[in-house]
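Subgroup meeting minutes
Present: P.N., E.W., G.H.
Scribe: E.W.

1. P.N. recapped why we're keeping a running log of single-chain structure predictions: easier to compare across weeks, and new members can see raw inputs and outputs side by side.
2. G.H. added today's entry (160 aa).
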Amino acid sequence: MRILVVSDTHRNTGRFVELMQEFSKKIEAVIHLGDNVEDVDFVKRNYRLPVYVVAGNCDYGGNVPHEVLLHIGGKRLFFTHGHYYNVRYNSVDTLAKRAAEVQADICLFGHTHIPTVQVQNGIIFFNPGSLTEPRGSSRPSYGIIKIENDRICPMAVPYI
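Output recorded in log:
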């Protein structure tokens, strides 16, 4: 199973559209980690894929949840934008408590615009970075999560 993960697209959908054209037949789901979740509307209209979203600090109104626990591929994926868990500078300490409470195998977050993969107390923490507005020394990026043979393999991929 392969899942495309994007975050912090901020109404700049051009790169997201290109990713969907490239990956639509190679993935089983799409996750958007917030900050302009309406950017996934074209995916919902044009592709027959499950789309999961959480609200970010730039998403107002609507019925978009702030966190989701998803059972997929035999794993528990917990995801949130991260602003309620003080993930600035990719610190996952507060987020780690919540991920442990829900017994997540992997915890996805955005908000920092900086890609990272780290493991804390047996839980994988994954931020795909920002597809359109990278920060720090990072480049525009997105994520791919592979779930195979009871293993979770998250990978931040530079957008080229």
